[in-house]
Amino acid sequence: MELDFLKMAKDISDELISLRRDFHMHPELGYEEHRTSDKIKEFLKKEGIEYIETACTGVCGIIRGNGDRTIGIRGDIDALPLEDKKDCDYCSTVKGKMHACGHDAHTTILLGVAKILNSVKNSLNGNIKLFFEPAEETTGGAQVMIKEGVLENPYVDKVIGLHVEENLEVGKIGVKMGVVNAASNPFTIKIKGKGAHGARPHTGIDPVVISSSVVLALQNIISRELPPTDPAVLTIGSIHGGTAQNIIPEEVTISGIIRTMRTEHRAFVKKRLVEVVEGLVHSMRGECEIDIEESYPCLYNNDETAKILVSSAEQVIGEENVKMLESPSMGVESFAYFSMERPSVFYYLGCGNKEKGIVNPAHGSLFDIDEDCLSIGVAIQCKTAFELLK
């Protein structure tokens, strides 16, 4: 008999809503998710699902079915340092902290998946691993979880992830084939000159003027050295230097971020940033220190895995409600660490509802979701994992 995952998910919708509102009322930042982690472990223990602790406050559960294949499903659990300004019964009770990116929904959906797939584990052609990831918004708990071995013992064959999306109406999903999210490289450049009186610039080496040239020159890497068909961004977010109008300072600090869509472009832009900055600064008699951080990699959807997700979702919500996305996002997502290790699929779950006024953007103080998306997300995750195990 065919398993009706949507019906099973709707049957527990009240429990899902209760869980989500509890998480929403008690947000915790990255690697501080102790209460959240305890609630997850309490739920898994109640359902008879084994688990291990990982990545400080993360949890990895496992449901053992009948077979050697293993599918991983990720849900991130951390909140943001933001004041919740919604007027509702379940708004944040923690000042300055809020689930403004929907991770409360992601955690809830994964718990719902755990409950349902565990109840039918004898029908599963393999195992399910449940990745409750901490610190997605900061350094990315995924890379720590991977280093601690969550993709092994048993070996994980494929990984599924989702993110709620307020620009998609509830009942719909968005799927992008190929590259989904950009890679990220924050950087800091310290330009050192020689201080002088503002009236006698020839006696010093002006790091402000050098910095101005650097800012403009760096934009040429994107506009003139990468194919215009491939998105990339180099943003200067801050410049700090100087203390008075008539003093040439000794040092200026520039900070910014690189976003690229291809692994090869990521390496190229980092290399060229160093070459351009060092060459320009030295030509103007200054010195520099450059620090480029290794942040999230590109997120790639595996074609075969994504096609099974699309087919599964069409069976759950109808072909007309599965939207194929044309453009990738310049935002970053720590699920990318999983996608670099195993064939993966990541998609967007509609949570917006214009009729209910649920239209406010993520990472904003008024963000909310249509909670009908919870059971839909559970059903699609269950169906996709079930099919991938075949």
Automatic annotation (TrEMBL):
What domain of life? Bacteria
Q: Which Gene3D superfamilies match?
A: 3.30.70.360, Zn peptidases
Its EC top class is hydrolase
InterPro entries xrefs: Amidohydrolase (IPR017439), Bact_exopeptidase_dim_dom (IPR036264), Peptidase_M20 (IPR002933), Peptidase_M20_dimer (IPR011650)
Task: Return any one Pfam family short name.
Answer: Peptidase_M20
Free-text cofactor note? The Mn(2+) ion enhances activity.
State a single Gene Ontology molecular function. N-acetyldiaminopimelate deacetylase activity
**Taking every annotated instance into account, which residue ranges of this chain make up the domain Peptidase M20 dimerisation?**
187-278
Query: Which BP terms from GO are recorded?
Result: diaminopimelate biosynthetic process
Residues engaged in binding Mn(2+): C101, H103, E137, H163, H363
Q: What is its EC number?
A: 3.-.-.-
SUPFAM superfamilies given for it?
A: Bacterial exopeptidase dimerisation domain, Zn-dependent exopeptidases
**What are its cofactors?**
Mn(2+)
Keywords for this entry? Hydrolase, Manganese, Metal-binding
What transmembrane ranges does the database entry give? none
Q: What is this protein called?
A: Putative hydrolase YxeP
Gene that encodes the chain: yxeP_5
